[in-house]
Amino acid sequence: MRIRVTFTRETYILLLLTLCAFAAGINVNSNLLLLVFTSFLSLFLVSPFLALFSLQGVTARRDLPKRCIEGKEFSYAYELRCVGWLPKTLIRVEEVGDTGFSGASALRLERVGATRLQAAGIAERRGVVRLEGIRFSTTFPFGLMKISISRSLPDSLLAAPRYAKISMPWGGSSGLQAGWTGAPAGRTGRGEEFYGVRELLPGETPHRIHWKWTAKRRQIMVIKEEEVRGGPLGLYLDLLGKAPGEAFEDLMRYAASLCYSLLCEGAVITVLWAEKERWFLGEQLRGLEGLNQVLDGLALASPKKSFPVSSSLSLLHSIPNWLVLSSDETPSLPFFLETSEVDSARPEL
């Protein structure tokens, strides 16, 4: 525990008045001015002790989310509890060090139960965000001095690469690749099966005009296709021989964006990349749960020098279609992809 004292503007003003009262009291031999001097001096002596005793009874706990996105602000909370007879007022909670996390303040803490303070933070980079400690500070009771106490409170959360919805690197909005067969999604979209008709939109190129309905409605009507939900797709992220840096981070963001776009469209994907001693493998991922698993993995991904040895990937031979994400024109493929049908996609770095 470390204690720090910071003088405020009011401190210097009161100090100047104290010196003036002392000098005037000595020169004119006035007991009243000496009493004023003694009163001002007592404020200096009492303030830090009262503030220190007030902070001694405050404890805190962070309520962090499981993950955040790099470069995007997220909210979290402090849960403060207090004991002791001194009032707990004008309490501010801050993170120790330059963490990019803003502080939160409370005018008064509740003596019964917990006081919850909302705060915000930004993770500047992908990976594990480590928080070492917190600092309590107060200007209680007279606002003359700011007393701070730092306490160790280690905590951490994952910062996933930022992502956005992007267009697919091949045809089809739901992860459908040429030659695949998938199940109808029951809604309009890209596909080959008839789903209905609609009016031609202004500025739209006529596509598959439905002549019967056009003649009946006396305006151009086009066919709506039924979206086909994509079948299982394998995504392999090539991390071999890559150097850490901004290009590698762009590859992480592209992978997160691609998985986000596929999973939002209802695709089923299997994601794979080489870890230090093993493989990161997410099989048959779908929806929000699948996206969270991918983001947690990408938050900790790092460049690799060689393929790990593992015999648990035999089931991946059953996935005939793979998409390889790499920053190189000739990606390094693992042994089980050498006989599969592979397409590659490169982010615009």
Count of domain modules: 3
The share of residues in extended strands comes to: 35-45%
The name CATH uses for the topology of the largest domain is Immunoglobulin-like
Estimate the global geometry from the Cα principal axes.
elongated
Task: Quickly name the level 1 CATH class of the largest domain.
Answer: Mainly Beta
Fraction of residues in helices?
10-25%
Task: Please render the helix and strand layout as text.
Layout: E1 2-7, H1 9-28, H2 31-56, E2 58-63, E3 67-69, E4 73-82, E5 89-95, E6 104-108, E7 115-122, E8 127-138, E9 145-160, E10 183-188, E11 194-199, H3 211-217, E12 221-229, E13 232-237, H4 246-264, E14 268-274, E15 279-285, H5 287-300, E16 321-325, E17 341-345
Parallel strand pairs: 3-9, 13-14, 13-16, 16-17
Antiparallel strand pairs: 1-9, 2-4, 4-7, 5-6, 5-8, 8-9, 10-12, 11-12, 14-15
Helix pairs in contact: 1-2, 4-5
Characterise the protein shown here.
There is one protein chain. This protein has helices at residues 9-28, 31-56, 211-217, 246-264, 287-300; strands at 2-7, 58-63, 67-69, 73-82, 89-95, 104-108, 115-122, 127-138, 145-160, 183-188, 194-199, 221-229, 232-237, 268-274, 279-285, 321-325, 341-345. With 349 residues, the chain is α+β, with helices and mostly antiparallel strands. The chain has 3 domains: 1-160, Immunoglobulins (Immunoglobulin-like), CATH 2.60.40; 183-229, no CATH class; 232-345, Rossmann fold. Strands 1, 3, 5, 6, 8 and 9 form a 6-stranded mixed sheet that branches. A 5-stranded mixed sheet has the order 15-14-13-16-17, with helices on one face. A 3-stranded antiparallel sheet has the order 2-4-7. The protein starts with a strand and ends with a strand. Mean pLDDT is 81; it is low at 171-192.
